[in-house]
Design brief:
Length: 139
């Protein structure tokens, strides 16, 4: 039986990655060592994220590199306010804020370890995606 599931990112700067998720998304450290931090989402939510120093002995030597092609999706209440804040703070934007026909208003930034963070606010789908959404939610 699976009792938990959470991504763990390799990072060259664990403290910077921890600070990013705490400052912009409210994650709190539930375990914090120099080489590893376990973060949990705020307000009783259970999503967790781990960050490990990529050169730590627990990471196999052949895989000690920053994440590439990793996309973490975080759903938020106010995507517009968060986008403005991240842009004002100079965080690298990989995909500017936009609406998607499949039912998302979102943007993608690059966090300190190099992973992409897709920040999402669900919106009503449009066009061909309306039928797909209705089919997925009907009994």
């Amino acid at each position: 039986m699976i009792t938990g599931l959470f991504p763990v990112l390799c990072s060259t700067d664990v403290a910077a990655s921890r600070a990013f998720y705490a400052e912009y998304f409210g994650f709190q450290a539930i375990f914090d060592a120099e080489w590893y931090v376990q973060l949990e989402a705020p307000d009783g939510a259970k999503p967790q994220l781990g960050i490990v120093a990529r050169d730590h002995g627990s990471v196999p030597a052949a895989h000690r590199r920053d994440p590439a092609g990793v996309l973490i999706s975080l759903e938020v209440d106010d995507v517009d306010v968060l986008y403005s804040r991240l842009v004002a703070d100079g965080v690298e934007v990989a995909l500017p804020l936009r609406d998607e026909a499949f039912g998302q208003r979102h943007f993608i930034v690059v966090e300190p370890s190099g992973a992409m963070v897709d920040v999402i606010k669900p919106i009503p789908p449009t066009g061909e995606f309306v039928a797909l959404d209705e089919a997925a939610t009907s009994p």
